[in-house]
Amino acid sequence: MSKPIDVALIGGGIMSATLGTLLQRLEPGWSISIFESLGDIAQESSNPWNNAGTGHSALCELNYTPEKNGQIDVSKAIEVNEQFQVSRQFWSYLVDEGALPDPKAFINEVPHMSFVWGEKNVDYLRRRFDALKDHPLFAGMEYSEDAKVIRSWAPLLIPGRRKDQPIAATRIAAGTDVDFGALTRLLVGAMTDKGAKLKTDHRVIGLKRTKDGLWKIRIRHEIGGTVLEVTARFVFVGAGGGALNLLQKSGIPEIKGFGGFPISGEFLRTDDPEVVAQHAAKVYGKASVGAPPMSVPHLDTRVVNGQASLLFGPYAGFSTKYLKKGSLLDLFQALRPHNISTFLGAGLKNLDLVKYLVGEVFASRAKKIRALQEFAPNAKGSDWRLITAGQRVQVMKKDANGKAVIQFGTEVVSAADGSIAGLLGASPGASTAVPIMLTLAEKCFPDKIAEWTPKLTEMVPSYGATVGADEKVAAATLGRTAAALQIQP
């Protein structure tokens, strides 16, 4: 067998690209290989048409500010915003370094808005605004219940709406739209320029720990079917929905008890210039009763390859696939004796969610257009077409009390010795890839962190601290990263 590679990255998405980019700067002498089963990278959840590209900073996503005991809990919103600032700092460093020479190729200014209707929801949004407006990371947030003002922010929202309907909106002009497909390609391109190896059409079919602590990786070349083996000192499984099955193949005890709950989805999309020109914002509403957090309805401006389009959705549904280009057997192949109780327990506990998702699968196109018209009353169905969104696999696990739960978020699962790790879960995902991968590095390379800290602090000045705790620090950080990324501070 050939000489072991230092780092094997399984999956060619934003997570692998981010981790590889970090490690390449922390350990320039390490060899890195990326193995992607498809013919190109960034084809699953990192693809811009498979996600909303919100640049999840909790500026507009109402699921991050739930109401608890009559109070608006903003702690998760602040946490997510802090994480996004870490990503912004790292991207800014790469722009200054020259690895990302044109930030407009992956990030653009798009205001972030929340929009609700009905007295109860208006009251909620008003209180959310009051709870966030003075926080340094939410500086510049505006609030209005005036239809004329809201129309000036997002013209499609108002025409055709009942004049007596209570409405409210918040807006932060300094929001962003991020094309994670473009960012992934740029990062991987810069990695390969520095010596990393990219192997597309290479599907990992086996993972086994050797007696000397290395990992033997069995790989099938999808063109021709040839099977080969490589060994690696460290393995990251960043295969999106495919991560669960691969971590199970590795045999690490840490993956026992975990399952995956798949959620499919669709968006309505229009590229009609006249329609697109009337809406320049990402507008998030409140989720339907029983809907999962990642199914919060939103009307989004997307900028892909310099071209603006609009997306509305997502329309969530249920599929047994774990990847958009996966197999209907994915869910069943993930069943193990150690996680059957997790699947059954979480499923029984979330029957309302299952019923909701199945209902969404069979929703008619007319029903989907009506949902769009709740946001944009005068929207014409003929201007919009349905596209299939990326597949999301939510973490299923036992909580501290031993009860099976569906966890909405991401989770790093790693072996005790740190030689292999994988990422399970979804939103906020891509937008917080940098802090997630920093956490993974701390878990898997604890003996290296002290040595790496100066470089980590150079790449992410707030490393080990927070941005939002100090108004001056927040303003300076937002201003500096905005200038580097060529966006509004």
UniProtKB/TrEMBL annotation:
What protein is this chain from?
A: Probable malate:quinone oxidoreductase
Q: Name one GO biological process term.
A: tricarboxylic acid cycle
| InterPro entries listed in its UniProt record | FAD/NAD-bd_sf (IPR036188), MQO (IPR006231)
CC cofactor: FAD
Catalytic activity of the protein: (S)-malate + a quinone = a quinol + oxaloacetate
Annotated GO molecular function terms are: (S)-2-hydroxyglutarate dehydrogenase activity; L-malate dehydrogenase (quinone) activity
Could you tell me the superkingdom of the organism this chain comes from?
Answer: Bacteria
Pathway listed for it? Carbohydrate metabolism; tricarboxylic acid cycle; oxaloacetate from (S)-malate (quinone route): step 1/1
Keywords of this protein's UniProt record, alphabetized? FAD, Flavoprotein, Oxidoreductase, Tricarboxylic acid cycle
Protein encoded by which gene: mqo
Homology family: Belongs to the MQO family.
Top-level taxonomy: Bacteria, Bacillati, Actinomycetota, Actinomycetes, Micrococcales
Q: Name one Pfam family in it.
A: Mqo
EC number(s) stated in the UniProt entry for this protein: 1.1.5.4
